[in-house]
Every structure is written in structure tokens, then in C-alpha cells.
Amino acid sequence: MAPEKAVVLLDERVSPFGQRVRIALAEKGVEHEYREEDLTNKSPLLLKSNPVYKKIPVLIYDGKPISESLIIVQYIDDVWVHGTPLLPTDPYERANARFWAYFVDKKIYDCGARMLKYTGEAHEEAKEEFMENLKLLEGELQDKTYFGGENFGLVDMAFVPFTTWFYTFEFYGNFSIEKEFPKLVAWGKRCMERESVSKSLQDPLEVYELLAYLIKKKYGKV
């Protein structure tokens, strides 16, 4: 029997992008070596493995690096075919899952980041767009257990790490996500019942403390 090929994850514990990969590996039961990266002093292995973006996460499998969290999650599903698929088998449903997963990156993360760092009119514009994007996501979720129906999958993994940012978004945006989007909050709680999720995510207050420190340091905003 051939030996298992080495699986190494270069990551940073509070990164929502790395958390996606950790969730996917846990869902598939993939044993791996976790290597914590100091993003202020990136390791030679990270710089060699992701020379284009020089960012985490990077999954190294059998010596071959794969970058970008959503690409890594889909790669995991392709390589480790045992267990429940992370993406639907139907081509249309797979395309739809990819659409909403990339929507999280382009709309939720981008708008949320702008809302946190800006003040004044730019802050209000980002907040309005952020709320509209959450409304679109809740409309896609509707009354389903997960975004893929009864199956926990790609869109859930893409979005659920940002539920630990909800407290921070609420603090800086002065609104209540639970009041405005109760279905999303209920969905987040269901996801947290999965061991793969609960063991991969950070405490929201810990996330807030880190983000508040970074926001004050970079933008002077309190």
C-alpha cells in the first residue's frame, strides 16, 4: 500500500479564508499538518508556495501548492471524493454555488471591510451596500437548512467564517444583523452545531479585539 501523501496547510488562525479550508478538510476527514504563519514575517515556504499573492491560505499536497481559499475548497472536493460532496453534482447547481461563494468575496468581504475602515459618507455608502448584499444572501437562503438545501457545502463554507465578524460589523455599523436578517443568524447557529465549523472559527469578541486594534492602527478609527 502506497504511503499517504503529505498535506500541509499554511494559514493564520483568525483568517476567515483559512477557516474555509480548515472546515473543508474537517468535513472530508483529511489529516494534515497545520503551520501558523506570521503575516508580518512571512515564511520562505509561503513566499515560495504563493509567489504571486504571497498570501495565506496555501494547501500543499504531495509537494504541490494550491492558493486562494475557494479554489482550495473545490480542489479538496475533487481530490478527496469520499464522504459528502462539498459541491452539488448537478452542473447548474454547482455553477450557482460558485456564483454565491464568489459573491461573498466580492460583496460581503469588500463592503464589510470598507464599512469598517471608512468614516462619513464613504462609511454610510459601504454600510448601505453591505446591508443590501446581506439581504440578497438571505433571499438566496430563504428557509433552507443550508445554502445547498439539506447539504452543507461551498457557499456555507465561504460565508460562515464571517459570522464571527458580525459583532464587529454591528459595532462599527450601528445596526443589528439579528434584527435585520434573522434567517442568516439562525443559519449561522446551525452551522456552528457542526464540529468542523465550531472547531475552526474564532470567538467573535476575539475577532473584534483584533480588528479594532488593526482599524485603529491603520486608519485611526475607534
UniProtKB/TrEMBL annotation:
<dbReference type="Pfam" id="PF02798">
    <property type="entry name" value="GST_N"/>
</dbReference>
<dbReference type="Pfam" id="PF00043">
    <property type="entry name" value="GST_C"/>
</dbReference>
<feature type="domain" description="GST N-terminal">
    <location>
        <begin position="5"/>
        <end position="84"/>
    </location>
</feature>
<dbReference type="InterPro" id="IPR036249">
    <property type="entry name" value="Thioredoxin-like_sf"/>
</dbReference>
<protein>
    <recommendedName>
        <fullName>Probable glutathione S-transferase GSTU1</fullName>
        <ecNumber>2.5.1.18</ecNumber>
    </recommendedName>
</protein>
<dbReference type="InterPro" id="IPR010987">
    <property type="entry name" value="Glutathione-S-Trfase_C-like"/>
</dbReference>
<dbReference type="InterPro" id="IPR004046">
    <property type="entry name" value="GST_C"/>
</dbReference>
<dbReference type="GO" id="GO:0005737">
    <property type="term" value="C:cytoplasm"/>
</dbReference>
<comment type="similarity">
    <text>Belongs to the GST superfamily.</text>
</comment>
<dbReference type="GO" id="GO:0004364">
    <property type="term" value="F:glutathione transferase activity"/>
</dbReference>
<dbReference type="GO" id="GO:0006749">
    <property type="term" value="P:glutathione metabolic process"/>
</dbReference>
<feature type="domain" description="GST C-terminal">
    <location>
        <begin position="90"/>
        <end position="219"/>
    </location>
</feature>
<dbReference type="InterPro" id="IPR040079">
    <property type="entry name" value="Glutathione_S-Trfase"/>
</dbReference>
<dbReference type="InterPro" id="IPR004045">
    <property type="entry name" value="Glutathione_S-Trfase_N"/>
</dbReference>
<dbReference type="InterPro" id="IPR045074">
    <property type="entry name" value="GST_C_Tau"/>
</dbReference>
<dbReference type="InterPro" id="IPR036282">
    <property type="entry name" value="Glutathione-S-Trfase_C_sf"/>
</dbReference>
<comment type="function">
    <text>Conjugation of reduced glutathione to a wide number of exogenous and endogenous hydrophobic electrophiles.</text>
</comment>
<dbReference type="InterPro" id="IPR045073">
    <property type="entry name" value="Omega/Tau-like"/>
</dbReference>
<keyword id="KW-0808">Transferase</keyword>
